[in-house]
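Check the record.
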Amino acid sequence: MARTKATDSGTRVERRQMIAAAVIDVLAEQGLRGLTHRAVDAAAGFGSGAVNYHAPTRAHLVHLALEELFARDGVVAATHFADLINTPQIPMPVVVDRMAAFVQEMTTPPARQRVIARHMLLAEAQRDPQIRAEFDAQRGAFVEFAAHIVAALDHDYPAITAEVVVIVIEGLIQRQVLIGATPLTDSLHPIIAGLLRSWHIEQ
């Protein structure tokens, strides 16, 4: 009986993840106006009404998408940066390489879909305090994560510099996905290296 329950629980988790991924795809391809239960059913390959059982309202769909976005982006960030935390005297070229690789992964599929969906939901967050609070908490965690790495670069103000690092990463990702006509490829490294070397933050 216990094994059956565990299997059922696993199935529910997998189903929620499939729905969340489908919501992200719908947001990336159809925008907020296209976010309906019917569209998510189709994107997930489910029969009509299946998604409604797990996410009965549009707010539930958004919440599932945010959970999936933050979880998957967190895995990508950890893959590129986690081993640098609390590492003394990180060479600058290593940080440049890691930042460039992170931006590159975040701006190519499947992460690219999440970037587009994230910006769709950011627009929604301007009118929804709960969604805004979730974004603020997630971004704050990323800045704190970056501060641990920046501290090893001997910056005088790691908290401020970490904010700048996150702003640069966010800006480069937006440039790659939402703004630029052509992606930055060979120029990513020199752009990041130039910014890192030129920072002198004063209080």
Residues 1-9 have pLDDT under 50 and may be disordered. The radius of gyration is 19 Å. Residues 2-30 form the longest helix (29 residues).
